[in-house]
Please model this.
Amino acid sequence: MNSMQRRSLGVLLLLVLSSIVAAKFQQDYGSADDYPLILNPKFKYFTRDPMTGEYKPFLWEAAYTKGPNDLTFLRHDLVGGRECLGLHVYQDGANDSYSWATIHVKQTLRGEAVSRLFGSWIGIWAYPTFRFAQDPISKEPWNVFGLEINDGKHLIWFVFSDHASGVYNLRNHRIVLVDAPLNQWSYIKMDVASHYSEAGWESPDDLSLILITGATKMDPGNRAGFYGEIRVEGKAK
Model:
């Protein structure tokens, strides 16, 4: 079997497994409106990406940006007694064509799923290990650990770091600093709809929910961030 045949077989097996998972959701939750918005929310299941050969959380997409001597990888970790998703980055600080070394792990929501998300809270268990840093003049970030909401036009970063609080905007990029102590688990709740409203943005038809860890060449060294369970909680009426 050649490499093209192996890749095709991998894609076929992934489609079959996805169909099995979808059938299981139908059995457990009934109608589509009752489906969980975030799939594999505890990162319990990993699979090999047939396109890259790298492991990733099942039903999530993973993308990497890095320079020639940077290092980026993800894995199933055990941190502070909790099984979790670990995103690991080494930024060498070289002045190459890549300012950032980052990992993005995402799911895309469309239509009714976006409406349900905007009517809910997103909660996440997060374990930051480094402090947020930024340019003192321009406020451009030098690193990031947090949750990104990206609708193709607008971008929100919920950044988790100790001694961090406040909101500021860079063009169509809104940065929300959330205080979370380093080297311990914190449960963080976020209201995406309120930030769209405050920024004057219309609700999108679709968006990507992205877990992100990264550093620019202005903040070299090893960086790691850990994500536990993601929950979607209804807002009190």
Residues 3-29 form the longest helix (27 residues). Residues 22-33 have pLDDT under 50 and may be disordered. The first strand starts at residue 46 and ends at 48. The chain is about 20% helix and 45% strand.
